[in-house]
Design a protein that fits this description.
elongated; mainly alpha; Serine Threonine Protein Phosphatase 5, Tetratricopeptide repeat; about 0% strand; about 575 residues; 3 domains; about 75% helix; 30 helices
Amino acid sequence: MDAAKFSDSLEVLRQAAEQGDSKAQSDLGLRYFMGEGIAKDFTEALKWYHKAAEQNEASAQNRIGVCYERGQGVEQDLTQAVHWYRQAAERGDAKAQSNLGACYDQAKGVAEDPAAAVKWYRLSAEQGFHWGQNNLGACYDEGRGVAQDPAQAAEWYRRAAEQGNSEAQNNLAVCYEQGRGVPKDLSNAVRYYRLAAEQGHAYGQRNLGLCYQEGFGVPQDAIEAIRWLQKAAEQGFVPAQLSLVLTYEHGRGVPKNQQEKVKWLRKAAESGDANAQVWLGAEFFIGRDLSRDLAESARWFRRSAEAGHAPGQSGYGSILLSGRGVGKNPIEAVQWFQKAAEQGDADGEYHLGACYADGLGADRNFDEARKWLQFAARQNYLDAKYRLRLLFFQKHSILKWRDACITTLGCALLIFHAFHMPISVNGFAIAAFLGILAASGVVFVAAMAVMEKFGMKGLDEKEADTTNERFFSMLKREPWKFLLIPGEDGFFLLPLLYVGISPVSVAIAAFLFAVAHYPAFPWRYCIPKGIAYFFVALLILPYGIWSVVTAHLIVDVGLWTVLLLVKVEGKPTWHRLLRVLRTE
């Protein structure tokens, strides 16, 4: 309609409104509300809405409800919004029925009542209003206020989608993509995603972009994927922004571009997404794709933490505990760990338990430490399992000198023995040592595999890898512990040459050797070490302690070198064998 005709129609509408036509009054108010052919004026819109509402014009009553819900032309008042929606809904206005259903659905101005929401959505949907149909479909989809029924959900989405509702088009596409309520059909999924996307629906744009990226229902096309993801991202849609972050980080169909990755990550973080804030904080901390800035890292972790995001709270607590980028503050760190832990965050539970165990930021309390570490361990937080094993040794502090005593006394005994007995190394004994370890390792790995097949707990690959990392870290901090290898042989085996090698004395030595590796290793790793040591002591030790020490050094140094330099990625069975053979 051209401007002249629009002006004429507005004048006709005004004349009808001034003559008391309630429908004209309501529509004139809408013109003012939308700014169609006239300057936008919410106050004037409300004036005409109220004139119409006084004549029980349902459309006007619904529109007054919208003004109260949004706070446009009047102070926001959700209770008043519900009042006006209800008046219009009870007169059969489909839009008001959908709006009133949404109030019950989202607890806006009224107590949440999913069943009431479904009632009003249904009344609206059965009159053919597309938002009522979409919202009723969502209730069936999620089983909210009505028994879950994917087929009914898809049907109501379809009715709304056919009227051009972009939200319903995206929802129906999801049904086709996942085969929920309809047969799985990626081509139809893409069709409805496209319809939604072309109307500017951000979810639809992102989902269509992902279809192009993965080749779901359309030929894979990285350019189209980026185009649709960017359209959604430019609307400030955070999931699309994060999809672009991953796309540029991993080079999904396009060259890796760390500058673009950081650009979209920053936008998502600045939009208030707590996950993105943690991610950006970690990027500043690591300093890989942007300059390392610990203060900026702390700032983003804090923003996430203050938003109530558990990973952000535990991350910011760790920063406060270490004093990296902020002043060191263990007391505040514990407070943030507590907030994260109370949300069930495993990282927060672990660090809170560790702080109680170490007396950092809180009085040392082994009972509290055990409680929180157990919570974290139940989520398979591997360091928590180690700290639980360590608690007994922390509680009885004299045991923390165990490794130092074994190393000192064992090496002293070897030196004493070297001065009184000739040093000799037997090649056959070394070969036999290696054979015993290999055989015991293979048997143990096979036994664990059988246990796993019967549903029993076997070897934990992740825990073993964490143990390896912990060992490397320990050697870096305390390189003297390398002397534990010969020290163990001097401490546990050398005395047997003087008191006599018998099955009983060897069993005692092997048992003590296994116990000495706890808590650094779980019991299921200590047991095969003790068994292998039993046979070494019984069969190899008679050839001399130096053959055992030499073989022990060859095995441990060699295996640790392999793990450090080669890392044996993707070889779980070989990885297990290496861990079992290691004897330190």
